[in-house]
Amino acid sequence: MKTRNGFSIIILILLVLSNLSFAQSDSLNIEGTWLGTLEFVGLRIVFHITKTPDGYKTTLDSPDQGANDIPGGQTTFSSNKLDIDFPIIQGSYSGVYDASNLTFVGKWFQGGKSIPLNIKKTEHEIKLDRPQEPKKPYPYNEEEVSFKNDSAGIELAGTFTYPKEGKKFITVLLIPGSGPHNRDEEIMGHKPFLVLSDYLTRHGIAVLRYDDRGVGKSTGNYASANTKDLSTDALAAVNYLKTRKDVKEIGLIGHSEGGMIAPMVADESKNISFVVLMAAPGIPCDQLLLKQAYSIGKISGESETALRKTMKLNEIVYNIVKTEKDSAKDWTKITNIANLFYESLTDENKREIGSVENFENQLKPVLTPWYRYFIRYNPAPALEKLKCPVLALNGSKDVQVSPKENLAAIKNALTKGGNKHFKIVELDGLNHLFQTADTGLPAEYGKISETISPKALELISNWILNKSK
């Protein structure tokens, strides 16, 4: 499950720059492309600077996060000092030119924190290494399709791929994780659903993948939707597949939140032959978020004291959202708790977070339709109703949907419901995206060239083709 904060750069450690020698270079031409890497985080940052009659203009790329052309606000260069702000992501850069190294030595600032970022001019195009991304022409048929979700009054667009040989195919619908995604479930320069659909179709399985509502060619408004709303989009896709004469049987593959939606759809439709759950939630979702925040913070080096304190705050906030039906009363209670929590922080913590208003703003997403539904949701009842064959898999290094707790909960729910046709697999060394990973942290996703581990692809394909044998 991905975070729903859009573009953000994770700041881990503060450093103070010292003992650096700077030479004057008033004649420096700063127009062009400047490249640097956030220290300790390892994310590449690219500034594209141009000069206009009104002054300098800058756009920012974070290629390892798949974010491009983020517009800058004000760019100033004077006395060898470069300052650029990016209001849309509440970030900024400040650096001083070191002529001896042809480098701006400075810091990136965001979310009340800073991290060293030195940038150097480059003439090279910044490319991502994504060796698994398939290249056209494909050895199978590809069809642009659309279908309606009448209950929501929207039309969804997608891609249907199917083998060139044969007339009727085992068919899977791919259901993406949280956050607005295109049909490839694109994230940090990776296209997991493109790679997955390509692999499956090459092995004789037809695939439908679609743009989320309000994304790509699909109509509708993603921001106002909760998980239940999104499940009706997937159900509309199933109903579309039922109309196709080349579809023999229909299965669902849900990733992350999509793995929560898949059982909802299977419970609504009588036409689902099997379900594959990739890093799907099994425990109550408020507990899932608490575990996720703790795991990411722990690996990132936060102290146990700080982690426990933050977890306690989150528990209180989630309980307010779960029990209070009036959002205005919700917010009053949350701001009161936030103020008490803020006052308990050290001066250093307050400087890192910024103002109390900034801290409160970080809590506002819990009042959105998606969060309100998600925090209250328990996947177990829908899982208990699944009677078709189920494959549930997760990576051992998943820090967003912890494998131990969630796979065990999925197994318990399926067993309780009397399902005798399921397989539970924890894949060693894989993260939430099923990449071979080092730490498993989300910041690592874009730096890994692998999109999906071949062992995960092979496992899913073989299970689908042999599930009834």
Folded structure, characterized:
- The chain has 469 residues and is of the alpha/beta class.
- Helices cover 31% and strands 26% of the residues.
- It folds into 3 domains: 32-122, Beta Barrel (Lipocalin), CATH 2.40.128.20; 141-284 and 377-466, Alpha/Beta hydrolase fold, catalytic domain (Rossmann fold, 3-Layer(aba) Sandwich); 285-374, no CATH class.
- The strands form 2 sheets. It has a 9-stranded antiparallel β-sheet with strand order 4-3-2-1-9-8-7-6-5. It has an 8-stranded mixed β-sheet with strand order 10-11-13-12-14-15-16-17, sandwiched between helices.
- Helix 1 links the parallel strand 12 and strand 13 (206-210).
- Helix 2 (227-242) packs across helix 3 (257-268), helix 4 packs antiparallel against helix 5 (304-323) and helix 5 packs antiparallel against helix 6 (327-343).
- The two termini are 32 Å apart.
- Residues 2-26 have low confidence and may be disordered.
